[in-house]
Design brief:
The complex is a heterodimer of chains A (704) and B (510). Chain A is α/β, with parallel strands linked by helices. Chain A is 37% helix and 22% strand. With 510 residues, chain B is an alpha/beta fold. Chain B is elongated and about 80 Å long. Classes of the chains: A alpha/beta (704), B alpha/beta (510).
Chain lengths: 704, 510
């Protein structure tokens, strides 16, 4: 067998993931605004893909790099396949958008007008709006012999205008870049009918105001996507903060990768743009509709219209955390707690930090922050803690992609109030999610730890499925402290009590675990692995999984995104099944289970099975030891694996097939199922509490 | 509930380590353990001093450590440094720089002190309990600069030696030898065997019931050999097999094939190799790896430091054993030494009302009286002066350098001249310590006089106060004691002058 027979290419696999996202948009059984949301997410994902994943391949092609990847393909081969597939997918996306979504939206009272379709009755008010606002802030830039084609930021929308000097009969071009943050202008809203016009279309309508004395011959909207990968020279960077700030400015100036025009753009304008923008050949897109559907997220999340949205599943606050009078530390001291987001509320995590910030017994708070929301209550609590003279250590990963600028901003704020802010580690991204509170209690120092598979972000915790663990176990505390000593540069790695860390020994740890299952299977016993992650790309791990499969180990993988492993291939991976779930919540938890001859091991981790996680990031993996929690997680996994509504199975040819229930089978949509189960559990606890609350007076024993 | 948080920092040859511990009702639990690599050993063993860049690195590490101590509000921080710093020509600059920049006082500890701490730590929870009184166990620590070997019995450390042949030091020593690369282990083998042959002559027992191996390399090896960190021993057979397996491995191969961290490459192989030789020497099948360290020992000594009243009782056997061992190495008159010690302690106990000294000083007197004549092994003439510098050159467990100087002076003044302001060794002491020397030496003089013949004719004594300023020493003797009487008459004067009492000797037949 050749390498090509062993692995899928990661970029092509990623495109298939994005197709699954698109599928949710195409799926007529989903509510209309949810479909629109998925189309929007599809676009957003694709933008990031062009900005980050493609540029490396293009560089390789341009430098004539012919070395094949693990799927046996050259960068050139991969790029052409990507090009083909992206065109197909975008076509599907717009077919759906134009033929399904827009007509249905119209039925629901949403009208989106263009310069061509806008009814005359609105022209006057729109003209006033344009002259008062847009005309004043926008600046056309001429393109001629003395004005070279201007620099246009990546992802910005622009209008190219073709004008004519009537006296000289001279043709000229000008470009008007316009802001993309507010794309929709609400023209009228009478409660039932919402009429919108796109900003670009409005500008097109009145563009002649910019060019008095000229004839406007033509105008068209277009967009450039640029390479946005930061090239941070960490080795040479004296100050990582300054280096990243500098690089952020450069990001906008990355080389152009993709050019998008609307399909009704004249050939003349298209050729002008193609001549002047040095995008990668092939990545020209004729868009059958508005460019950049990601902006439709604004419409998909419009207030009201519940009948066009998924049933709301508000996060549930577990019963034990409802009593605000009981300190969160006393709750955690009783036992380990699992929080399964977004089914369960993120509030206990926020409360953990908030209580710590004002608790007189707390000596220190330490946490990693990778992506967090700007107005995060956690940041506010950390600031408060520092003001209350707690020792606050925050390890900020500045290099969290596309969140860099935001991270720099609040990292500086924290530093100003006296927190000890560590800006990452040279050469490694800090991806582990861990928070530690050290308390000086009456019976000694006690450490409280929160470990998670997801970021400390109260906003994404409502959309991402993640698992968090609260514990006050000493061994976890020692390891948590040691991780912070490592991250702050205070100490070298210790001998871990419970945790496993990347880039130190996590890959080997997994290989050992897989090998144990393999050996158990080889010696006639049972071998079983269940793993859930976002991406499976690491070649070494995949090879070990193949070996385990050949030995008879049953392997069930839930891989939401990229997967380079080829499942169900005879004599290679017959015992491996890979499913992917794409639904209303983004599957994000990383859970690893090994049968281990019946002495089952269960772990959570911040890491995917990817080279970057094993080799270039600081990640943690920790065992789940509490038997109740173990059972709970295994139950979650069982439900996930039985999904027959939003799950797709990966086939040996790399395509994904939706799993459908048989006629006799119950329909299982795992995310909803898990939510309902959680809700039922909490209701039962509530009922139990109410029973206890009933006051039943004791009878006088003497009276019979 | 009595609780405190303290921190112990150990500045070693290859790393600076810190343990932050919490002590609750005398029980220690470790809160944090940190380690940062430094090249102190490489600097000192190669250049003789600590380079500026290394000093700066140490300052940075210690500042960070101190921050962490502040987080826990650790009230006490003990920073100790051993071999590498001790041997550096710029040790004073190093200590001063650390103090001014990181605000930490670093104490340079002797090898004896180091052994004492490690012994305390091991002894606090012995992995192999003693079954017999005549049983011995050994502690072996192979470091970067030195090899520390000590042997102890149920009661105390009976032998301890520091050999200047740590792994890094040996690499440095043989670096310019012909064939240094390939032949290193041959050189090392010869050197280890030579030292062990020397050791054989002095050691009280080469048959020990247990060996404790100390050091991160051995802990790592335990993990490699037992595939579990929970095991606490290495079998001799496994060690030998491992040694022959890696014998031809390059450092790189050791890292990759054996999963040894990179920063151990310099020392892992030589230390394991040397260890296998030491195990051979001790004829033991098993090495216990107690996973305790000097820092734990320091913490123990801090929380367990006996108060002044209990000091003598706690350590008397250790003091006596150490003093006798020194004496035996120099062929001393053991019977005389022990008799004088016995008499001196009796006088000490029965004249407390006059001298007002406590338990610690009693310990000084024990050692000084056992070793008062040790200078005779060099020459009889001025032997009291030889005794002084011999004692000064020795190390004693559980005693500070200051205390050793007191002991040396007490021994020196057991005869001839009384202390004078023209005696430099005496004047080095503080006025308070000088007073201790005078009081103890005045007692020692009387005790020595009572065994002037070295025949132990005085079996026992009692001190009786007959009037407020008059004491009678009743001596129970066997036979005639002429020279003792004569000597007593001369040697009692110092005591009489010092305490303003008259002293008489009354002889009773035993």
């Amino acid at each position: 067998m050749k390498n090509a027979d062993f692995f899928f290419n990661r970029e092509l696999s990623w495109l298939e993931f994005n197709y699954r996202v698109l599928e949710e948009g195409l799926d007529k059984s989903n509510p209309l605004l949810e479909r629109l949301k998925f189309l929007s997410i599809f676009s957003n994902n694709l933008d990031e893909f062009f900005m980050v994943r493609i540029s490396g391949l293009i560089s390789q092609v341009k430098s004539d790099f012919q070395i094949k990847d693990m799927s046996g393909q050259t960068p050139g081969d991969i790029l052409s396949k990507i090009n083909l597939r992206v065109h197909e997918l975008v076509k599907k996306q717009y077919e759906c958008f134009n033929n399904d979504i827009i007509p249905e939206m119209r039925n629901e009272g949403f009208n989106f007008y263009t310069a061509k379709t806008i009814p005359e009755m609105y022209l006057e008010s729109l003209k006033n709006l344009f002259l008062k606002k847009h005309f004043l802030i926008l600046t056309p830039m001429a393109v001629d012999q003395s004005h070279p084609f201007p620099f246009l930021s990546g992802k910005s929308l622009n209008i190219l205008v073709k004008i004519e000097d009537p006296k000289k009969k001279e043709i000229k071009y000008a470009i008007i870049p316009y802001p993309t943050d507010d794309r929709f202008i609400l023209i009228s809203d009478d409660g039932n009918l919402k009429n919108y016009i796109f900003v670009g279309e409005l500008i097109k309508l009145f563009v002649s105001y910019f060019f008095r004395g000229y004839n406007v011959l033509d105008s068209a909207i277009f967009r450039i996507t640029r390479d946005a990968e930061l090239s941070i020279d960490e080795e040479g960077a004296e100050d990582l903060l300054l280096e990243i700030e500098g690089q952020l400015k450069k990001r906008e100036k990355g080389r152009p990768i993709r050019l998008e025009c609307q399909s009704d753009t004249s050939e003349d304008i298209k050729s002008f743009l193609k001549e002047n923008i040095n995008f990668y050949e092939g990545f020209f897109f004729d868009i059958e509709g508005p460019i950049d559907l990601s902006s439709f997220m604004q419409i998909a999340t419009v207030r009201g219209y519940q009948h066009l949205k998924d049933v709301s599943l508000p996060p549930i606050l577990p019963f034990e955390f409802q009593n605000e009078k009981e300190s969160i530390f006393s709750i955690i001291a009783k036992k380990d707690w699992l929080l399964s987001h977004p089914y369960e509320s993120f509030d206990p995590v926020t409360r953990f930090i908030e209580e710590a910030s004002v608790d007189p017994k707390v000596l220190a708070i330490k946490m990693t922050l990778y992506r967090t929301s700007g107005d995060s209550p956690i940041i506010a609590a950390l600031k408060k803690a520092a003001e209350n003279k707690k020792q606050v250590t925050v390890v900020v990963e500045l290099k969290a992609r596309f969140d860099e600028a935001q991270n720099i901003n609040w990292a500086k704020q924290l530093e100003q109030v006296g927190c000890h802010v560590v800006y990452g580690i040279v050469g490694l991204k800090i991806h582990c999610k861990i928070a530690l509170v050290v308390r000086d209690e009456d019976d000694g120092i006690k450490r409280y730890i929160h470990l998670s598979t997801g970021n400390y972000n109260d906003k994404t915790a409502r959309i991402y499925t993640d698992l968090g663990l609260f514990t006050s176990k000493k061994s976890y505390g020692r390891d948590a402290s040691a991780i912070f000593n490592l991250l702050t540069g205070y100490s070298e790695p210790p001998r871990w009590k419970k945790m496993v860390c990347a880039p130190l020994d996590m890959r080997n740890f997994f290989i050992d675990k897989i090998t144990i299952e393999k050996n158990n299977a080889l010696s006639g016993g049972k071998g079983k692995i269940i793993a859930k992650m976002n991406s499976l790309v690491d070649g070494k791990i995949i090879k070990e999984l193949y070996e385990a499969s050949k030995a008879g180990v049953e392997i069930q993988l839930v891989v939401r995104g990229m997967c380079c492993l080829k499942p169900s291939v005879k004599n290679l991976s017959e015992n491996i099944k890979v499913i992917s779930i794409v639904d209303r919540f983004l599957e994000h938890s990383r859970i690893f289970y090994f049968y281990n001859s019946g002495d089952e091991n269960l772990y959570f981790s911040s890491a995917d099975w990817m080279e970057r996680n094993f080799d270039r990031r600081i990640e943690t993996l920790f065992p789940i030891e509490d038997e109740d929690i173990k059972r709970e997680v295994m139950n979650l996994m069982k439900i996930t694996l039985s999904d027959n509504t939003k799950a797709r199975i990966l086939t040996p040819d790399g395509s994904y097939k939706r799993i459908k229930p048989d006629a006799s089978e119950k329909k299982i949509r795992s995310q909803v199922e898990i939510y309902n189960m959680t809700l039922e559990r909490e209701k039962a606890k509530q009922r139990e509490k109410e029973v206890i609350k009933k006051f039943i007076p004791k009878k006088n024993p003497d009276i019979t | 509930m009595n609780k405190r948080v303290l921190s112990v920092i150990e500045i070693g040859s290859r790393a600076i380590r810190m343990s932050i511990v919490e002590v609750i009702d005398g029980k220690i639990s470790i809160l944090e353990e940190l380690r940062q690599q430094v090249r102190l050993g490489k600097d000192v063993f190669n250049k003789g001093k600590i380079l500026r860049s290394t000093i700066n690195q140490c300052i940075l590490i210690l500042k960070n450590y101190k921050n962490l101590c502040d987080e826990y509000k650790a009230e006490e921080i003990y920073a100790v440094a051993a071999t590498a710093v001790r041997d550096a020509s710029n040790v004073d600059i190093f200590i001063d720089n650390i103090f001014s920049n990181a605000g930490l006082v670093v104490e340079i500890i002797s090898t004896t002190k180091g052994t004492e701490y490690v012994y305390n730590a091991i002894n606090s929870n012995l992995l192999n309990k003693f079954k017999r009184n005549d049983e011995y166990q050994a502690i072996v620590e192979i470091g970067s600069g030195t090899v520390e070997i000590s042997i102890f019995n149920r009661k105390c450390i009976v032998f301890s030696r520091s050999l200047p042949m740590g792994a890094l030091k040996m690499k440095m020593i043989f670096s310019d030898a012909p064939n240094a690369e390939e032949g290193f282990f041959n050189y090392l083998k010869a050197a280890v065997e030579r030292e062990l042959r020397n050791l054989k002559r002095e050691i009280p027992a080469s048959k020990v019931s247990a060996i404790y191996g100390i050091g991160p390399e051995l802990e790592l090896l335990t993990k490699i050999l037992n595939s579990s960190e929970n095991e606490n021993y290495i079998n001799k057979k496994d060690l030998e097999e491992f040694c022959s397996k890696i014998y031809s491995f390059s450092d790189d191969e050791i890292v990759h094939k054996m999963n040894v961290p990179y920063d151990y490459t310099d020392t892992f192989h030589p230390i394991i190799f040397m260890f296998s030789k030491v195990i051979d020497f001790f004829e033991c099948d098993k090495i216990y790896i107690p996973k305790v360290n000097l820092r734990y020992g320091v913490a123990l000594s801090v929380i367990d430091s006996p108060d002044k009243m209990d000091f003598f009782n706690k350590y008397k056997i250790q003091f006596k054993t150490t003093a006798i061992n020194i004496g035996r190495r120099l062929n001393f008159d053991e019977k005389h030494a022990l008799k004088v010690a016995n008499l001196a302690l009796k006088i000490f106990d029965e004249t407390k009302e006059f001298h007002q000294l406590c338990d610690k000083e009693k310990a000084y007197l024990t050692i000084a009286s056992i070793l008062h004549d040790i200078g005779s092994s060099l020459s009889d003439s001025s032997h009291h002066k030889h005794s002084m510098y011999i004692i000064k050159s020795q190390d004693f467990f559980y005693l500070e350098k200051r205390e050793k100087n007191i002991i040396a002076n007490v021994a020196r003044y057991h005869r001839n001249s009384e202390p004078k302001s023209t005696h430099p060794d005496y004047m080095e002491l503080s006025p308070k310590d000088r007073m201790i020397v005078m009081k103890l030496s005045s007692i020692l003089r009387i005790a020595d006089s009572l065994d002037n013949t070295h025949l132990q004719l005085v079996k026992n004594i009692r001190v009786i106060k007959d009037k407020p300023n008059s004491l009678i020493i009743v001596a129970y003797v066997k036979g005639q004691i002429f020279t003792e009487l004569y000597s007593f008459r001369h040697k009692k004067v110092f005591f009489e002058t010092l305490f303003g009492v008259s002293l008489r000797l009354k002889i009773k037949k035993d």
